Amino acid sequence: MNTSYTIQLHTHTLTYELTRKAVKNINLRIRSDGSVHVSAAPRVPLAQIETFLQKNSAFIIHAIDEMKKRQETMPFLTLCDGSTLYLAGTAYTLDVRLGLHNTVRRSGKTVYMEITENTPAIRQQLYHKLLQQEGKRLFPASAARVFPQLSDYPIEMPALRQRIMRSRWGSCMPLKGIITMNTYLAIMPESIIDHVMLHELCHLIHPNHSKHFYNVMTMIMPDWKERKAAMSAYLPYCV
């Protein structure tokens, strides 16, 4: 269950979203849009959570300010005719035209979007459809590349799913053997997709973010931090 709260941090009034779930620590996440999200176990008092936020107020305020600066300087994908968008890290030009049906396809270096009515909602719906189509190809291919590198561990190839997610790039359910990839990853190069795939596959070995988890990550993919950092360039296209 998610609940919104407001707290005063020095001269800043902060509204944050609190999620109660089975976690050991109070977790803080600041999303690319500058929104603040906190997760904590049901037993943790609200006063303790807000004390945690006060102690980290300097970091939170700085991070939000940096997000705002980045949003001001980054391009924003409007999905209008002539826009540039990315599929698997490759740039495409968007060609939007009115027609009898709502369809989307890519050919050469152009994405053709036929729409019955020129509204942002229809353009976004077709954009998501395009990314889902790409994801159906990209995500299994990534698993096929990455999974064999974990052959020393007694894990089985998981079932793959995808969906639009706003706060995480992937998720893993070790007990069910299911990995869900963020559909927006279809925007990014295969090297970045492989980084997220490895991250989720490693949760089948270590269902946490312990040093053992990151040791496996680093052993298999020594440059995973660089790949993770490269993701920020594609955030304006996650619309």
Record the SSE blueprint.
Elements: E1 2-9, E2 12-20, E3 27-30, E4 36-40, H1 46-55, H2 57-73, E5 84-87, E6 90-98, E7 103-107, E8 110-115, H3 120-146, E9 159-163, E10 170-173, E11 178-182, H4 190-202, H5 211-220, H6 224-229
Parallel strand pairs: 2-4, 6-8, 9-11
Antiparallel strand pairs: 1-2, 3-4, 5-6, 7-8, 10-11
Helix pairs in contact: 3-4
Protein model, in words:
The chain is α/β, with parallel strands linked by helices. It folds into two domains: 72 residues, no CATH class; 154 residues, Metalloproteases ("zincins"), catalytic domain (Zincin-like), CATH 3.30.2010. It is 35% helix and 27% strand. The protein is built from six helices and eleven strands. The chain has a four-stranded mixed β-sheet, with helices on one face. It has a four-stranded mixed β-sheet with strand order 5-6-8-7, with helices on one face. Strands 9-11-10 form a three-stranded mixed β-sheet, covered by helices on one side. The radius of gyration is 20 Å and the shape is globular. The model has no long low-confidence stretch (mean pLDDT 92).
In round numbers, the mean pLDDT is 92
Spans of at least 5 consecutive residues with low confidence: none
Number of helices: 6
CATH uppermost class of the largest domain: Alpha Beta
Beta-strand content estimate: 25-35%
**End-to-end gap:** 25 Å
From the alpha carbons, calculate the radius of gyration and give it in angstroms: 20 Å
Question: Mind telling me the CATH superfamily name of the largest domain?
Answer: Metalloproteases ("zincins"), catalytic domain
- Major beta sheet, strand line-up: 1-2-4-3
**Would you count the extended β strands for me?**
11
Going by CATH, the architecture of the largest domain would be 2-Layer Sandwich
Using the coordinates shown, work out and report the CATH topology of the largest domain. Answer: Zincin-like
Q: What is the helix/strand order?
A: EEEEHHEEEEHEEEHHH
Look at the helices and sheets and give the structural class. Answer: alpha/beta
- Helix % is 25-40%
The shape is globular
Largest sheet: 4 strands, mixed
The figure for the number of domains is 2
